[in-house]
Design a protein that fits this description.
CATH topology of chain B: MetI-like fold
Order of helices and strands of chain B: HHHHHHHHHHH
Number of helices of chain B: 11
Largest sheet of chain A: 8 strands, mixed
CATH architecture of chain B: Orthogonal Bundle
Structural class of chain B: mainly alpha
Radius of gyration of chain A: 27 Å
Distance between the termini of chain B: 38 Å
Structural class of chain A: alpha/beta
Strand content of chain B: under 5%
Number of strands of chain A: 25
Strand content of chain A: 15-25%
Helix content of chain B: over 70%
Radius of gyration of chain B: 23 Å
Oligomer: heterodimer
Chain lengths: 692, 314
């Protein structure tokens, strides 16, 4: 614990000038980071976590300023008083930033090796030859396959995961003493994220640098960080070692956050998620008392009137709460008892609602001039390739897979926004047409969709009321007055007040917008709703409330869902059945609860293993998928997963399509390995994990 | 409640009025933009009330033709006299400059308006429909855009002028408004392009897809869902087109393809008073030329300000 303190932030206050006034975005921030430690800052959007990072490196936007009295000391040197020029040499060698979007951080017209070598030449004074050699070596260190050839590639020739490695290599080549990582894995798939996180952890340990890791994902913090700072509305709520903060949280906000994430294997039938109601306060006029008081389940009179100080606890933690001692000693239990909104059922099986057979979508590719001359026809992109499944009335089918697996295309084929190449869809035993424009109003009314990004799915120029009324009149054939009444009923069903009807989407928060989108999807009282990543754009505290809402509405209205997500825990919470998709095909289908216990398909196993679990004591099985998802233009032969499969058994995987294997109880796995063998192998790992 | 409750439409109306007010406030908060906008408003005022303001409402009023050489005496600056002097025909330059605003606003303003309306319809339609409609109409637009605006304008005017229409028939009416029509024809494709690309961007938003999956007709989607989001781009483009249109109208007048003598057209006035006569009556050229410059600069400042304001408010 007595490692050198590299970064010491005290009393940091940052304001932004907005519309003539000063907005206090970060207030009274403290942090100490030691060498070799990774300190995580978690918080929702608007909590000020990125502002802290930019303030530390002295790169605030023009309308931002660090208030007097703030102190940022980097190995004893005060940074707040330094000018741009003095900071520049620090930026080059001592403090490095890994940004969220690697594609934007790389120059698209220069080869990545050259971009890396340039840093080595400029800041380390190397000559051209040495710099090139250093670049190759660095690429090897960040585990880029075949570094000699990668240096000659342009950024667009690399996948997102590879680009992020290049950016990390660029940050590390000067052996900086402080690394600031601003959500470096947010845009990546879980499988890639897991590999990058391992890499970051190893590199930091190796170089004995200090790192500040900014993220909204508690799982990521638990996996890579030593210390964690929990921020809310610009203030530190709690601070301490990851183990302490996660295992014995004493701040109501931390407790709320940890409980609002569905655990892997947790199901809606076991109880509703504990959500944090409400939304963060506006920074324009922050509340007089505790900033979290309005949403806090333990708030008392004092919390609204008196601002809690950042207190030291006996364990060297910091906490900002009037009642932390009561929580710590167990006098106050703030985890509310929740009842499941969803009934337990004897049998999951119900009558069939939707049947999808041999669903196929091949996107044509424009021929290049060379191909036209040679008379070749390019291979089409086989986004969805012969998928069969069914959905039962009132049940949820979860669909998981990495990006590029074809799950979104599949959902668009079903709703009719993309025309299918081949296949049949039967809704309530009636075959329905391919294109949504050719479908009758009765069919449309039975099938609706909730989109991923509520920002995009509501028209900014129509009021909430207008947008919900339209499907009522169009699909449910209501009269104007009747529809107006129904709008209020729907708004209340999604926990919004009546006056929201006259508001525009721009006046709502992300979670409220998604509620409106849900109300709109339910307006025609459909039998089936396709939910395409409905919570992935939302903050964790809001996500839980939306998931609870979806579960409750399904129970009330007996609507079936096709629920698409890359997040296995979220899918597992809501789904009764789960299908796992990879490169346009299904590889595993089973009951929701089955999927998290062996046997599972090697791909599912890798997905589960890659999920960052918000529990620092959890030892992951460390099954990592190497490489990236192959292009759907040139699919691997045999089993499509063989190129990345950790359990590949031999030549048979490369040549033959794997058979569907059935355990006799509705669990199907498409693999060459017999189920018993899979189970034995995977059980071993689970045991090993439990004993470690 | 039996009392008045605001219906969503009324609330919406009040909100949009509020939005317009906010827009205007932001526009006037930047000094160059405010100056530009005020200039345009000033000229617009002249265009509307010109005949009431001008000391000699008849543009062809001549001082006694037999009188001595024209004068410009700034020390005796009195309205009602000849503050800008008189031209070689003895006509009051001041009155003619004022009266000229109407023709320029008529040709440039109305022409731009027609171009914006036509361009919006075409752009929305081809942008939403896509596929072969976009391919064909898009290529035609590209072909028109390949011809320089002034050249195209000259060709079209040449054609219209060479058709011999009976006087007072509707065709002759058309011929009289040739410049206005030219502006509309030259700028409609440009507006269509801008609206098309804005439509393409908005079409991919999911609220359009949400409308499709509840079976809305293409017309509803185009006008109710897409059009409002196109308006910001349209306002910016319209203001920009207007400034180019003023320039084009003046150029055509100067080249002798615009208004015909003796009408008080700025471009025409510049053209009539240049050459050997310039030395005699320089003011007869300088004032209309200055007016053109002032208006073009004013519109440019205004359109630039509109663009910034729109971009800022997203």
């Amino acid at each position: 614990m007595d490692k050198e303190i590299l970064l010491h932030v005290e009393n940091l206050n940052v304001s932004y000038r907005v519309n003539g006034g000063w907005l206090r975005a970060v207030r009274d921030f403290h942090a100490q980071i030691r060498r070799g430690d990774i300190c995580g800052i978690v918080g929702e959007s608007g909590s000020g976590k990125s502002t802290v990072a930019t303030a530390i490196i002295g790169y605030l936007s023009d309308n931002g300023r660090i208030e007097k009295g703030s102190s940022i000391r980097f190995s004893g040197e005060e940074l707040t008083t330094k000018g741009r020029l003095a900071m520049q040499s620090l930026w080059g060698t001592q403090i490095k930033l890994v940004p969220q979007n690697p594609a934007a951080a790389l120059n698209p017209s220069i080869k990545v090796g050259e971009q890396l070598a340039e840093i080595a030449r400029y800041h380390l004074g190397m000559n051209r030859h040495d710099a090139r050699k250093a670049a190759v070596e660095m690429f090897g260190k960040v585990q880029l396959a075949d570094p000699e050839s990668v240096v000659f590639r342009y950024p667009h020739e690399l996948s997102g995961g590879m680009q992020q490695r290049v950016v990390i290599a660029m940050a590390l080549i000067t052996r900086p003493r402080l690394l600031i990582l601003d959500e470096p894995t947010t845009g990546l798939d879980v499988t890639t994220e897991a590999v990058i996180l391992d890499l970051i952890r190893d590199l930091i340990d190796d170089m004995q640098a200090a790192a500040l890791y900014i993220t909204h994902n508690l799982g990521v913090v638990a996996q890579v960080c030593d210390q964690v700072i929990v921020m809310y509305a610009g203030e530190i709520m709690a601070d301490g070692s990851v183990k302490k903060v996660f295992i014995e949280p004493i701040h109501p906000y931390t407790i709320g956050l940890l409980n609002s994430i569905p655990k892997l294997g947790q199901s809606k039938r076991q109880g509703a998620l504990q959500s944090i109601e409400g939304s963060p306060p506006s920074l324009k006029n922050p509340p007089k008392g505790c900033v979290f008081a309005q949403r806090c389940p333990a708030a008392v009179e004092k919390c609204y009137t008196e601002k809690p100080e950042l207190e030291h606890t006996h364990e060297g933690r910091l906490v900002r709460c009037h009642r932390w001692q009561e929580i710590h000693s167990g006098v106050l239990d703030i985890i509310p008892e929740t009842q499941a909104d969803v009934e337990q059922v004897e049998r999951l099986e119900r009558e069939s609602l939707l049947k999808v057979e041999n669903m196929t979508k091949h996107f044509g590719v424009r021929r290049s001039l060379m191909e036209v001359i040679q008379g070749k026809k390019p291979a089409p992109i086989r986004a969805v390739d012969g998928v069969n499944f069914g959905v039962q009335k009132g049940r949820t089918l979860g669909l998981v897979g990495e990006s590029g697996s074809g799950k979104t295309t599949l959902s668009r084929l079903i709703i009719g926004l993309t025309e299918r190449t081949d296949g049949e869809i039967e809704l309530m035993k009636i075959k329905i047409r391919s294109n949504v424009r050719e479908r009758s109003a009765d069919v449309l009314a039975q099938m609706q969709m909730i989109f991923q990004n509520p920002q995009n799915s509501l028209n900014p120029y129509l009021t909430v009321g207008q947008q919900i009324r339209r499907p009522l009149m169009k699909l449910a054939k209501m009269k104007h007055d009747e529809a107006a009444q129904e709008v209020y009923r729907l708004l209340r069903a999604v926990n919004l007040q009546d006056d929201y009807a006259s508001r525009f989407p721009g006046e709502l928060s992300g979670g409220e917008k998604q509620r409106v989108a849900i109300a709109r999807a339910f307006a025609s009282n459909p039998e089936l709703i396709i939910c395409d990543e409905p919570v992935s754009a939302l903050d964790v505290s809001v996500q839980a409330a939306v998931l609870n809402l979806l579960a409750r509405l399904q129970e009330d209205r007996d609507t079936a869902y096709i629920f698409i997500s890359h997040d296995l825990a979220v899918v597992g919470y809501l789904a009764d059945y789960i299908a796992v998709m990879y490169l346009g095909q299904l590889f595993e289908v089973g009951y929701g609860h089955d999927l998290f216990e062996p046997p599972y398909h090697p791909y599912t196993e890798a997905l589960i293993s890659a999920i960052p679990v918000p529990d620092p004591s959890h030892v992951s099985q460390r099954i990592r998928l190497q490489g990236d998802i192959p292009s759907p233009r040139s699919l691997p032969t045999g089993c499509r997963f063989h190129t990345r499969c950790p359990r590949k058994i031999g030549a048979i995987c490369e040549t033959e399509d794997p058979p569907w294997r059935d355990d006799g109880e509705g669990h199907f796995i498409r693999c060459h390995i017999p189920l018993e063998d899979l189970q034995a192998m995977q059980q071993q790992l689970v045991m090993a994990e439990a004993s470690s | 409640m039996q009392f008045f409750t605001p219906t969503p439409t009324l609330v919406g109306l009040r909100r949009s009025l509020k939005a317009v007010g906010k827009f205007a406030r932001e526009l006037f908060s930047r000094p160059p933009t405010a100056a530009g906008t005020l200039t345009v408003l000033f000229f617009l005022f002249l265009a509307v009330f010109g005949p009431q303001i001008a000391p000699y409402p008849d543009p062809n009023f001549q001082k006694n033709p037999s009188q001595e050489a024209p004068t410009l005496n700034l020390r005796e600056f009195r309205l009602g006299d000849y503050p800008f002097g008189t031209d070689r025909l003895g006509r009051d330059v001041f009155s003619r400059v004022i009266l000229g605003t109407r023709s320029i606003f008529r040709a440039a303003g109305l022409g731009t308006l027609i171009a914006v309306i036509v361009g919006t319809f075409v752009g929305l339609f081809i942008g939403y429909q896509g596929a072969w409609v976009d391919e064909i109409v898009g290529r035609i637009i590209d072909a028109i855009l390949a011809i320089p605006a002034l050249l195209l304008a000259l060709v079209i005017i040449g054609i219209i002028r060479n058709l011999n229409f009976e006087p007072n028939s509707w065709q002759s009416e058309v011929a009289d408004n040739a410049v206005l029509i030219v502006i509309a024809i030259v700028y409609a494709p440009i507006v269509a392009r801008v609206v098309r690309s804005a439509t393409l961007e908005i079409k991919s938003r999911q609220f359009v897809e949400a409308a499709q999956i509840r079976g809305e007709s293409p017309l509803y989607i185009i006008f109710r869902e897409i059009f409002p989001s196109v308006i910001p781009a349209l306002v910016v483009e319209g203001a920009l087109r207007f400034s180019y249109a003023i320039f084009l109208v003046a150029s055509l007048g100067f080249l002798g393809f615009g208004a015909r003598p003796p009408s008080p057209d700025w471009g025409l006035m510049v053209s009539e008073n240049r050459g050997g006569l310039y030395a005699l009556t320089p003011w007869a050229l300088e004032y209309p030329a200055g007016a053109i410059a002032l208006l073009v600069i004013g519109v440019n400042l205004m359109s630039d300000g509109i663009k910034r304001t729109v971009q800022k408010s997203g």
